[in-house]
Write a structure and sequence with these properties.
about 180 residues; 2 domains; 10 strands; six-stranded antiparallel beta barrel; Thrombin, subunit H; two-stranded antiparallel ribbon
């Protein structure tokens, strides 16, 4: 696991003597995943076991104390527990979160064109997978091969046209069977 370093400023706390928190100066942008919603947040402080996050008052209404959510911050994906609400600072609501689990990035092949050398990269699972990108590429390639000038030159236009007619006939047969 790579080590992460942050430009930080120490913040002394009178109420908590065992917790040492550091204010984050740079790169405070993060996202919090609650259900299917991705909320833009800012990470304000870091400590040994978690973070202090800052959100707008409208976003704070959607965050429930005691709930586990995903935090995406600094190329890391973590499962965090929202422990408590902190006092608001400059109109920004703050929450103390504790890291429950940090997900390991998965090694996968980067998107590459056929017959080109690819490289392995480490990423976390995302909503848009490389399968969708590959499917889109194949669809674009199919459409290009069906163009009148290109398809005639390659000899693919007749084959693509007959395949589309066959699909149309099969779909119409299914629709007729469903009506009856």
């Amino acid at each position: 696991m790579p080590e992460y370093t942050y430009n930080t400023l120490p913040i002394p706390l009178e109420s908590e003597t065992k917790t040492y928190r550091c204010k984050i100066v740079e790169n405070t942008k993060a996202t919090l995943r609650i259900g299917h919603a991705m909320l833009n947040i800012s990470v304000r402080e870091t400590s040994g076991g978690g973070f202090t996050i800052g959100v707008s008052p409208q976003t704070a209404k959607r965050i429930k104390v005691g709930k586990r959510v995903e935090l995406h911050y600094d190329d890391r994906k973590m499962l965090v527990l929202i422990e408590s609400a902190c006092p608001d600072v400059d109109g920004e609501s703050r929450f103390q979160v504790r890291t429950v689990k940090e997900f390991e990035p998965k090694e996968r092949w980067a998107f590459r064109l056929p017959f080109m050398r690819g490289k392995k990269i480490k990423t976390h699972d995302s909503v848009i997978s490389s399968g969708a990108a590959y499917g889109g590429f194949v669809l674009v390639l199919f459409c290009v091969m069906a163009l009148p000038g290109v398809g005639d030159q390659l000899g693919t236009s007749q084959r693509i046209e007959s395949a589309v007619k066959l699909l149309q006939k099969n779909v119409m047969d299914v629709v007729r069977a469903a009506k009856n």
